[in-house]
Sequence to fold (169 residues):
Amino acid sequence: METTINLLVNGSLALLGVVLGHFVTKHTHIFQRSYERKSDLIVDLYKEVVRLEFALKKYVHFIGAETGEDSIQKKIEELNNIKRDFQSFQHKFWEVEIILEDDSIEKINKFLQTYISITSKLSVSNISQQLRDSEQQFDNWSEGFQLVSTNLAQIKGELKSEFKRALKK
Fold:
């Protein structure tokens, strides 16, 4: 009887070890997959931030700086394309923000708010150009230009640091 009990106990311990090993392996795999997905997402979001910043810089330096009467339609179309790309990024961010850290979310929201402010100023500049109010046109374009050149670049740098920190965790 004692031998049977010893066999059952030893067999149970071995079976418990196998089950526990399977459980740990399964959850380690899930964690690794989740970490890899999060890392890929952070890299993708940063790529989009860089692309959006570049598109806006290109606009304010070249297309948005044009003042001729024939330039307004091109400016409106290009700014609308930039806004459309931005809205796609914004929507993508909202879909995945649940898996990002609070600091990353805060920095991306700061980027979103600044981008909206800039595109609003550039839109007002375009409207002012249509109304032939060159002073208002220039003032709004200049404010947008300054925000792109300083604030947006700074926020992108902060995002870069934040994302690097998040990737090292």
Remarks:
- Residues 37-168 form a domain with the Four Helix Bundle (Hemerythrin (Met), subunit A) fold (CATH 1.20.120).
- The chain has a mean pLDDT of 86.
- The chain is about 90% helix and 0% strand.
